[in-house]
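Margin note from the TA: students keep mixing up input and output lines. Inputs are the sequences; the output is the structure of the whole complex. Example:
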Amino acid sequence: MDELPGALGTSASLSLRMGQTIFSSAALLFMCLDVEFYSYTAFCFLVTVMGLVIPWSLTLSLVDAYSVFVKCPLHQPGIMLVVIIGDWVLSFLSLAAACSTAGVTDLLLNARLCGRYQLSAAMAFLSWFLSLASSLFNLWRLPSL
Amino acid sequence: MDELPGALGTSASLSLRMGQTIFSSAALLFMCLDVEFYSYTAFCFLVTVMGLVIPWSLTLSLVDAYSVFVKCPLHQPGIMLVVIIGDWVLSFLSLAAACSTAGVTDLLLNARLCGRYQLSAAMAFLSWFLSLASSLFNLWRLPSL
């Protein structure tokens, strides 16, 4: 059985998950450097979503790492389906959070606030992109299980 | 060959497309009632995306209407694939536009501006939802062609 690079349990998937964890942590960090974010709904939403994405990606990167190093690939369609749906929902949520943050940041720029929020939005977009990639790779892999 | 309700060329698909056209026109209308929107990037983005969604949905609703009334269903996988990818991209774009509009509107509410932008964002969300539904129905239908 040939392994599709990027599907659950491969080293490409491990690097996608590591990227998601790093970018979403960076987005959360840039947002939370001070407590000012609390006054904007969009920023609170971003913090909530990133707080969901980080444990999800971290857990799946551990699963990938286990699967890569112990050479024990996962082939249960049930687990795959849960992972695909989870990735899917989180990818929509992180796109929504990134867009609302970007919209609000663009508005605040006129009021001459710092570019930290821009960085946070950019990180959230990167995290969304990697999450979508994971989801598509797993979806592509599903019929061959 | 059983017809999946919601796939291209059925009456359910026609009503989905009509809904998309109506909601995206409403979003565009609420946004453009005056020219104030021009000063916010998020609102310009919404207007651009809705300007793309309206002709797309209108064209496909005409295709559906033709296919329903002339009883000549479409069965080319190539056309189906173009429709799925188009729906997909437009669904992401309209989610992004709706979220950034909602984020900016929420911020402007503190400055006591009117709820017209809120209505526009809500219409954009409905349009996104219907567009996603169309895309999923067509994707589900694709393997049986």
